[in-house]
Here is the input.
Amino acid sequence: MRLAVELTREAMRGGSAPEREPQKPVDLGTALTEQFALIDRNIDSVVGTVNAHHAKLEQTIRRQKIWNIVLAAGIVIAVIVALIR
Here is the structure.
């Protein structure tokens, strides 16, 4: 119990906690420019990912259309063969 009380007192006094470095003055224009550049890079990354996903979906849709045409042709041929016999 004493140890807990002593640790609490030391923490409240600041004790052996590492001191913070004073913050350097920040140029607002530079900070905003860097932030906007970061945002632009992130947006470019998202746009690239969305475009790649879109291209993959277009390719999948093309394959599906071809498969549907082949399947329909197969059904038509099967029906014709069944009617001929």
Remarks:
- Residues 29-85 form one domain.
- The chain has a mean pLDDT of 85.
